[in-house]
Amino acid sequence: MAIDDGSSTPDFPLWKFRTGTEFGDQADVIGYHVVGTDEEIGSVADFVDANDQPAFVVDTGAWVVGQRILLPAGAVESIDHAAREIRVDRTGTDIREAPPYEVSTGESEEYRNRLTHYYCDLYADHHEDHSPPG
To answer: Given this model, what pLDDT does residue 28 score?
Structure first.
């Protein structure tokens, strides 16, 4: 069973960077702040690229001690290296409610599929308000 890349819904590949959001050395983004449309979400703890599906491991810190989520590259709206900030086009609540990331299961096909479905549903529900550029 192949991993669903989210290319049918939303109208962009969830597991690929949007045009203009790519970055160079992945170690450079560790510690960057992740900011949603309404609040800071957390900070980048790691970057993973399993099966050519880049994503940020985000430590949400204050909400639940030690909770981390996996943020697909396609959810990133912009990266500001000067401010050390990654902006996403969803609210903090939207991101916090994603299936939690655990190192032991985070690279599994089943986890990636659950995460893909979560974000596809999220983008479908908010399509009119926050549709990302194609």
So the answer is: 82
